[in-house]
Write a structure and sequence with these properties.
Layout lengths: L14 H8 L2 E5 L4 E3 L6 E10 L4 E12 L7 E6 L5 E9 L14 E6 L6 E3 L6 E10 L5 E8 L8 E3 L4 E6 L2
Antiparallel strand pairs: 1-12, 2-11, 3-10, 4-9, 4-11, 4-12, 5-8, 5-10, 6-7, 6-9
């Protein structure tokens, strides 16, 4: 990514400065479905990753379109892989991955969950109808640049495939 811009009063804007501003936000969209079957071991997403600079702060947003070959089979757990020394805090909003409590609406009980490290994960429910799962958060990198990458797996190993569908996306915006 470009150098984080710093402006002073009265400074003349150049094309390079404007390009740096444009380059503060990066975006990638998944072009093909990716499935996992009978495995709760985290895998790197083939497409949802973006380069991040060392010693920088990013706002992160990800839309995961998830589905399962069978209802209530496997579900989905999500996290991020990131450069050494980075700190990532994220929350997910998506369908609950546990049985609905008495008195809950069968039309959907959404949950918010938090993760603080690559070892943490965010479990959500998926079904045969694709569902949108929103992840938002902040990534603060240390001295190592690298990739911020969506990692995911079935929440519980199941013979029915769990899929992260095409058109899912990841975006990062550098804020410091």
């Amino acid at each position: 990514m470009a150098t984080f811009p710093s402006f002073t009063a009265g400074q003349r804007l150049t094309a390079a400065m404007l390009q740096d501003l444009r380059d503060l936000t990066r975006y990638v969209e998944k072009g093909a479905n990716q499935s996992v079957t009978n495995s709760a071991t985290m895998v790197d997403d083939n497409e949802l990753f973006l380069a991040v600079d060392a010693n920088a702060t990013y706002m992160v947003k990800c839309l995961v379109i998830g589905s399962s070959a069978a209802n209530a089979a496997g579900d989905l757990k999500l996290t991020f892989g990131f450069p050494a020394g980075a700190v990532v805090m994220a929350t997910v909003q998506g369908p609950n991955n546990v049985a609905l409590a008495a008195g809950s609406s069968a039309d959907g009980e959404f949950v918010a969950r938090n993760a603080l490290s690559d070892a943490s994960f965010l479990p959500v429910g998926v079904s045969t109808s694709a569902v949108g799962i929103i992840i938002v958060g902040r990534a603060i990198t240390a001295a190592t640049a690298g990739n911020l990458r969506l990692r995911w797996a079935q929440n519980a190993a199941n013979a029915s495939a769990t899929t992260v569908n095409a058109r899912s996306y990841l975006t990062v915006t550098r804020v410091a």
